[in-house]
């Protein structure tokens, strides 16, 4: 076999711009490996790329996908054996080089994370970017500690649900938001202690539970809700800006003294495969397999359903991770 099926974005635009095509199977360059993709998760980053928000670094046509899960098919360096289960993410995938929306993908060897698991590929495919972003936000972005309180703004996103699971495992009290009361059960299933219906003013709700405010807050919605999230946080508490579910990235006419409440700390997180240690990934997989942790998956699609999957992601109606399984 010399060709593979892949999802190609010819130019930014609607889901109709996503096309399944036969492409040559890529050959790994020196320092790169080729992965047989078994499954991949969908991410807002790919939606931003499809809509044309990714900036000039992205060239077209492009195979999307900032993550992939599968097995090593070819590693010229010999570091990984053929058939080794691996995950990969970020590092320019789906932006500056072709990504995971394909039967095969080539990536730098340094952004490959090995693992061993008997979980099904759909479950495994949901994990890389979701876990890396949630883990990185809680550790690098917020440095949360046991017995602290955490607000997750945008709680029913896949990263929000994963963050709640990780935070509860670490012994935090978790408050999570959703705009839809129908999604409250999904938050409770993830272990959330206090479900808050987001009407735009969450800070008063938070302070009715914790009068001084939360110790830490994870902002996944974006700049429209960031001021209210800051107001929900105690003096010397930390807010980490990680997500942009609203597709609004910047603060116009930013004046820090007026924008940030006195004594509240504002940070941000973006990361790559290096922020997800092998042992953290393996422990998470082992916990899932043992039933101690749940992977929040909304729906699994086939490659031929990629337009339907992107449309659901764009609608904001998903209750967890959307995954495409290839085998």
Task: Name the features.
327 residues, 7-stranded mixed β-sheet, alpha/beta
- How much helix is in the residues? 25-40%
**Rg over C-alpha atoms, rounded to the nearest angstrom:** 20 Å
Bin the strand percentage: 25-35%
Overall morphology? globular
Could you name the ranges where pLDDT drops below 50 across 5 or more consecutive residues? none
- Structural category: alpha/beta
**Mean pLDDT across all amino acids:** 94
Number of helices: 10
Strand-and-helix sequence, N→C?
A: EEEHEEEEEHHEHEHEHEHEHEHEHE
Task: Say how many strands there are.
Answer: 16
First-to-last CA distance? 16 Å
Biggest β-sheet description:
7 strands, mixed
Give structural notes.
By secondary structure, the protein is α/β, with parallel strands linked by helices. Helices cover 26% and strands 28% of the residues. The model has no long low-confidence stretch (mean pLDDT 94).
């Amino acid at each position: 076999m010399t060709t593979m099926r892949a999802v190609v974005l010819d130019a930014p635009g609607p889901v109709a711009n996503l096309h399944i095509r036969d492409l040559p199977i890529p050959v790994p360059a020196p320092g790169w490996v080729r992965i047989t993709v078994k499954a991949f998760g969908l991410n807002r980053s790919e939606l931003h790329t499809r809509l044309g928000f990714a900036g000039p670094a992205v060239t077209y046509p492009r195979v999307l996908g900032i993550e992939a899960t599968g097995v090593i098919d070819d590693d010229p360096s010999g570091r990984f054996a053929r058939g080794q289960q691996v995950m990969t993410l970020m590092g320019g995938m789906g932006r500056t080089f072709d990504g995971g929306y394909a039967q095969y993908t080539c990536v730098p060897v340094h952004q490959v994370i090995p693992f061993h698991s008997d979980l099904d590929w759909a479950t495994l495919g949901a994990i890389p970017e979701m876990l890396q972003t949630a883990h990185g936000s809680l550790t690098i972005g917020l440095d949360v500690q046991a017995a602290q309180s955490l607000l997750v703004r945008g709680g029913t996103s896949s990263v929000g649900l994963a963050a709640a699971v990780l935070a509860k495992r670490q012994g935090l009290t978790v408050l999570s938001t959703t705009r839809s009361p129908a999604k409250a059960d999904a938050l409770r299933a993830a272990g959330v202690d206090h479900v808050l219906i987001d009407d735009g003013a969450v800070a008063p709700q938070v302070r009715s539970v914790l009068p001084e405010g939360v110790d830490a807050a994870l902002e996944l919605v974006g700049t429209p809700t960031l001021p209210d999230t800051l107001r929900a946080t105690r003096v010397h508490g930390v807010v980490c800006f990680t997500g942009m579910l609203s597709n609004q990235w910047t603060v116009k006419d930013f004046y820090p003294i007026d924008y940030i409440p006195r004594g509240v700390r504002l940070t941000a997180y973006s990361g790559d495969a290096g922020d997800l240690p092998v042992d953290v990934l393996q422990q998470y997989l082992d916990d899932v397999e043992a039933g101690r942790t749940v992977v929040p998956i909304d729906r699994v699609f086939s490659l031929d359903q990629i337009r339907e999957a992107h449309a659901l992601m764009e609608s904001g109606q998903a209750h967890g991770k959307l995954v495409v399984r290839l085998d």
